[in-house]
């Protein structure tokens, strides 16, 4: 018994020493040789979605830069919250990264009562694409902007609006509040449902994540709900230009666990920048009308903080969250 | 038509055929593995097709989708573990057949039904894409809601011994489907603060738990039955147990055709999916049969009905995509990205702008059907060997496969817990004779029914009168009412007399489980 105990005590000490050597010493070295093993890229959506395809293309382009494979692991759930929670528990060594829309951090916490993430909880390697979020209408609709829609909806009571996400409700609710029109809000759950309801004439206005740009002959953009005009429709003024200060931007972001060494962040950031010129990556984003707008690590953190603050102010003004 | 000939010329060369074959084979294997399905397969393969020419690339991707539909029957029949949820009804009769030593017969029927359903549906796509798609847009949420309501009446035909128990099980299915984020207020329902439940329970681990794991537990607890069945499998060497007899063909062909029609229609309608198609087809065939009480004990028509519908959904779900550019299913939505990537923008214009490429895609789809037949035919001989193993050796392997399948669905252990929880529910459902078929139907149809009902309320401006603008919906509501009245009167009694079979597939050889249920009145 004693012998056993002593042996196991010895073993434990040895393991501890080894473990310490394994953990402490290479911590500094790891930054030099990073990456010297495959990287896991979490994606907060199921395989096959639009953002998943962009993530996979980014993983290919980045792994060519870094010289190590990047394995994409889908962790679907609550717009990436499940994946983000897992990322928060991972070691900040650059071997676990998350590719996700930053709506997870700058938008969702204000709209849904589940896991709350703040911008300070993570580090960011950069942003690569923007979502062309917009209000869209059938091509033959008798209006071209929000003012026209309001006038039309006033004359045609009982019309419907397709709401894909909670922020879609915020937009139409704010428009209704300001103008006094009344519109029924139809819940939809996917981009293809948005298209179906628009083409089938069931709704006259819908909130789209950008998929509607694929149907230029059947669907037109009424107002981008972002702070910038869309590369796919530069002539359409944004919702802010049309008098509703509600522009909220979301972008695909490479999110890292808090405390990732700066040298590793910079390497990942440089690898992400390579996507801009990667022909395969461009092919994927072009085919889906997704504009590439690269932000390096510093700019990404800045954008994260400012957009979160702006969105929070919009929600407070709309009464969605308490002040 | 001229273009079709050119299309076949583009496809019938070694390179393109190789890639289509590779796609079908990959799909077949992925389909047979529980938890891995067509969506994952196609999504992962899209980047692999970057360097192929468009016809080969699209042929390969559609090949994966087609192959996995056929492959999922293999594990459903041999292991009672549907490779994809849409093959769950295949297991209901396929697995009992396999336990009776007729695995090869069931596999063959599954394959032939798959290929016929797939091929006919492909032809429907080619012939009718343009004209049919116009009607697809007439089916909005209001119509869909009415159609789903009508399809719920099939529960009456699938309840097994007692309609009351069947409806209770279905209600539980709908209840479990309500877990997760509510679609209008985005408040999580019944999630107990678990982030994993915010998006609701996933069908894959739930179906694996209820069907496969529960079945394995029941089997493992019954050594007598094990020995009994092992003895029976030896008898399976008889030739008529391996081939499909003329009489079985005669009974199955109507089921296959019915399944193809149902599958094609379900595919065209937006948002329903292959699971709804195969369950409705199975229910309809059972209802049409002269011996509905024998379903669940190894009726070859059951396999034929489920598989033909399951496979007919894939090609026909491309109809709205090709004709209007609207994805009718998950797989179509994923394929859009691939199509655009390879220079083919789905929509009416593609027939004008790229007729040759469209013809090439059509031709490769037809080729994929035949390749599927060949691969399935030779692959099955290999797969069927599994059944010769004693069950006690199979059970641990299947449980491992089940766990992997459940895990792969979301890459998280939580899915395995879901699987285990529903294994317990499935076990008691079997023992207490509650139909897990109606449970699954409730679970599959419930969320879409709720969503379309909420959508309908808004679209109808909260006024029932507005239904007059939706004649198709009104007709289906009327049909539903008539069916309910009809079921409530005569048919319910007939079903009430039937022995308890549908709820206990694979285990009805033991006397204790097939006791006649007393009449309710």
Automatic annotation (TrEMBL), chain A:
PROSITE patterns: PROKAR_LIPOPROTEIN, TAT. InterPro entries: BUG, Bug_dom1, TAT_signal. Keywords: Receptor, Signal. Residues 1-30 form the signal peptide. It comes from the Bacteria. Belongs to the UPF0065 (bug) family. This is Tripartite-type tricarboxylate transporter receptor subunit TctC. It comes from Hoeflea marina.
Automatic annotation (TrEMBL), chain B:
The chain crosses the membrane at residues 16-36, 109-129, 135-155, 162-181, 318-341, 361-379, 391-408, 414-429, 436-455, 467-487. The keyword Transmembrane applies. It holds the Pfam family TctA. Keywords: Membrane, Transmembrane, Transmembrane helix. It comes from the Bacteria. Residues 17-440 form the DUF112 domain. This is Putative tricarboxylic transport membrane protein.
């Amino acid at each position: 018994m004693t012998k056993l105990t002593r042996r196991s005590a010895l073993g434990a000490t040895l393991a501890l020493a080894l473990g310490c050597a394994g953990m402490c010493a290479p911590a500094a070295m790891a930054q030099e040789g990073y990456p010297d093993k495959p990287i896991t890229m979490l994606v907060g959506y199921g395989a096959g979605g639009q953002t998943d395809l962009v993530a996979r293309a980014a993983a290919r382009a980045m792994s060519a830069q870094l010289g190590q494979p990047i394995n994409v692991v889908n962790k679907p759930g609550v717009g990436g919250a499940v994946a983000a929670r897992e990322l928060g528990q991972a070691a900040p060594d650059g071997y676990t990264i998350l590719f996700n829309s930053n709506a997870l951090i700058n938008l969702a916490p204000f709209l849904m009562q589940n896991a709350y993430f703040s911008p300070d909880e993570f580090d960011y390697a950069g942003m690569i694409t923007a979502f062309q979020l917009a209000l869209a209408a059938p091509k033959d609709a008798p209006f071209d902007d929000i003012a026209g829609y309001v006038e039309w909806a006033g004359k045609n009571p009982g019309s419907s609006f397709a709401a894909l996400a909670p922020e879609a409700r915020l937009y139409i609710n704010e428009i209704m509040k300001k103008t006094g029109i009344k519109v029924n809000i139809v819940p939809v759950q996917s981009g293809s449902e948005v298209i179906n309801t628009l083409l089938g004439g069931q709704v006259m206005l819908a909130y789209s994540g950008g998929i509607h740009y694929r149907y230029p002959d059947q669907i037109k953009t009424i107002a981008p709900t972002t702070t910038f005009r869309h590369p796919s429709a530069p002539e359409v003024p944004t919702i802010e230009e049309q008098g509703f200060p509600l522009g909220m931007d979301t972008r695909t972001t490479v999110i890292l666990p808090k405390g990732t060494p700066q040298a590793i962040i910079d390497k990942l950031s440089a690898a992400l920048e390579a996507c801009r010129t990667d022909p395969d990556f461009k092919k994927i984003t072009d085919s889906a009308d997704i504009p590439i707008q690269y932000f390096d690590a510093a700019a990404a953190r800045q954008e994260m903080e400012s957009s979160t603050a702006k969105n929070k102010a919009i929600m407070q003004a709309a009464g969605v969250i308490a002040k | 038509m001229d273009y079709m000939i050119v299309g076949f010329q583009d496809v019938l060369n070694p390179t393109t055929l190789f890639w289509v074959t590779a796609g079908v084979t990959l799909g077949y294997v992925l389909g047979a593995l529980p938890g891995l399905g067509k969506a994952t397969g196609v999504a992962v393969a899209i980047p692999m097709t970057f360097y192929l020419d468009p016809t080969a690339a699209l042929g390969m991707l559609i090949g994966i989708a087609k192959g996995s539909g056929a492959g999922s029957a293999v594990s459903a029949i041999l292991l009672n573990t549907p490779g994809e949820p849409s093959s769950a009804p295949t297991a209901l009769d396929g697995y009992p057949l396999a336990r009776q030593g007729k695995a090869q017969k069931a596999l063959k029927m599954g394959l032939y039904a798959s290929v016929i359903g797939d091929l006919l549906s492909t032809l429907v796509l080619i012939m009718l894409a343009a004209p049919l798609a116009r009607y697809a847009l007439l089916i909005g949420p209001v119509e869909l809601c009415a159609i789903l309501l009508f399809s719920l009446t099939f529960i009456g035909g699938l309840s097994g011994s007692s309609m009351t128990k069947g409806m209770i099980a279905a209600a539980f299915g709908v209840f479990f489907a309500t877990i997760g984020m509510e679609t209008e207020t985005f408040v999580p329902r019944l999630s107990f603060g678990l982030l994993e439940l915010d998006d609701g329970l996933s069908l894959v681990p739930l179906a694996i738990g209820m069907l496969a794991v529960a079945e394995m537990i029941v089997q493992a607890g019954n050594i007598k039955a094990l020995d009994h069945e092992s003895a029976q499998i030896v008898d399976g060497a008889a030739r008529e147990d391996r081939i499909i007899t003329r009489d079985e063909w005669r009974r199955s062909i109507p089921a296959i055709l019915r399944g193809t029609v149902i599958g094609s229609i379900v595919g065209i309608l937006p948002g329903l999916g292959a699971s709804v198609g195969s369950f409705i087809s199975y229910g309809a065939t059972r209802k049409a049969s002269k011996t509905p009480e024998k379903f669940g004990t190894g009726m070859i028509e059951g396999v034929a009905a489920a598989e033909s519908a399951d496979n007919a959904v894939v090609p026909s779900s491309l109809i709205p995509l090709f004709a209007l550019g609207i994805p009718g299913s998950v797989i179509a939505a994923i394929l859009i990205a691939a199509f655009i990537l390879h220079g083919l923008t789905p929509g009416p214009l593609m027939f004008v702008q790229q007729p040759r490429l469209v013809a090439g895609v059509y031709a490769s789809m037809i080729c994929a059907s035949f390749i599927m037949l060949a691969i399935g035919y030779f692959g099955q001989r290999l797969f069927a060997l599994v059944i010769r193993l004693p069950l006690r050796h199979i059970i641990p392997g299947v449980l491992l496969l089940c766990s992997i399948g459940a895990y792969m669905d979301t890459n998280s252990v939580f899915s395995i817990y879901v699987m285990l929880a529903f294994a317990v529910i499935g076990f008691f459902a079997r023992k207490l004779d509650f139909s897990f078929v109606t449970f699954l139907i409730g679970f599959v149809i419930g969320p879409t029914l709720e969503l379309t009902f909420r959508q309908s309320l808004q679209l109808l401006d909260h006024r029932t009168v507005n239904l007059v603008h939706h004649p198709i919906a009104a007709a289906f509501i009327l049909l539903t009412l008539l069916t309910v009245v009809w079921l409530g009167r005569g048919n319910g009694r007939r079903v009430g007399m039937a022995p308890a079979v549908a709820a206990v597939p694979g285990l009805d050889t033991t006397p204790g489980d097939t006791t006649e249920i007393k009449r309710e009145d």
